[in-house]
Write a structure and sequence with these properties.
single chain; mainly beta; eight-stranded antiparallel barrel; elongated
Length: about 210
C-alpha cells in the first residue's frame, strides 16, 4: 500500500509541475479492451480473453521538441472469461462465467515523438477499483432432467481496491486524430483472498483506441 500512496503523490506532483507550461493539448479517446487475468502459478481453469471497452480523457504537456508527458483519466473494464464442461453416463454439465472488473485508471506516460506521425510511450498507471462482478451461467443435465442457473455475484469485497500496472504503447497521428495501441501489464495482485496454490492474479490488457486532440 505504501508504494501505491507514493506513486499517487508522484503523479500529482508531476501534473502540478507541468501545469505551468503553455504547451498543452487536451483530448479524448475510446476503444476496445482485450483482457485476461494472469496466474503466477498453474490455474485450475485457464482464462479466456474478455472483450470490453475503455474511454476517457488526456492532457499532453510538451517538455522538449520531441518529449512529452501525458497524464490520462480513464474508465476501463478488464477481467476474463472462463468456461468448463464435463460429461458422463446420463450426465453432462457446462459452466460459463465472466469476471467483470471496472477501474478508474490514472496513467502517467512519458512519450517520445521522433516525427509528426508517430509517438512511443511508457509509464506507470494506478487503477482505483469501481466494481467487480462475476456473471455466471450453468447448466446440468442428469437422467434427462436439466437444471439451469444464471446470475451475478458481487466480487468487490475479495478484489483489491487498487491495481498498479505498467503501460507501453505507440500512437499514430492523422490531423487531430490519434490511433493508439497499448499493452497494460499488471504488477499487483488483484485478489484480496487466498487463491489455489497461493497464486497471484494480475491483469493483462491489450487496448486499441481512437482519440481526438482539441
Amino acid at each position: 500500500m505504501t508504494r501505491k500512496v507514493v506513486f499517487l503523490i508522484v503523479i500529482l506532483g508531476i501534473v502540478s509541475l507541468l501545469s505551468a507550461t503553455d504547451n498543452i493539448n487536451f483530448g479524448a479517446k475510446a476503444g476496445l479492451n482485450i483482457s485476461d487475468i494472469h496466474y503466477s502459478k498453474d490455474a485450475f481453469i485457464e482464462p479466456d480473453k474478455k472483450f470490453d471497452f475503455v474511454l476517457g480523457a488526456f492532457v499532453e504537456f510538451q517538455v522538449t521538441t520531441q518529449v512529452y508527458i501525458q497524464p490520462e483519466l480513464l474508465y476501463t473494464k478488464k477481467g476474463a472469461s472462463y468456461e468448463s464442461s464435463d460429461s458422463g453416463e446420463n450426465y453432462s454439465s457446462k459452466w460459463e462465467t465472466t469476471w467483470d472488473i471496472s477501474y478508474l485508471q490514472m496513467p502517467v506516460l512519458a512519450k517520445f515523438k521522433p516525427n509528426q506521425l508517430l509517438g512511443i510511450y511508457l509509464g506507470p498507471s494506478l487503477g482505483i477499483l469501481l466494481s467487480s462482478e462475476d456473471e455466471y451461467d450453468t447448466k446440468q443435465t442428469m437422467n434427462g432432467e436439466t437444471i439451469s442457473s444464471t446470475g451475478t455475484e458481487d466480487m468487490k469485497d475479495i478484489t483489491s481496491s487498487t491495481d498498479l500496472s505498467l503501460i507501453i504503447g505507440s500512437e499514430f497521428y492523422y490531423q487531430n486524430f490519434v490511433f493508439d495501441l497499448r499493452y497494460d501489464f499488471g504488477l499487483s495482485n488483484i485478489s484480496d483472498v487466498e487463491t489455489l496454490n497461493d497464486a497471484e492474479l494480475t491483469n493483462r490488457t491489450l487496448s486499441l483506441l481512437v482519440g481526438y486532440t482539441f
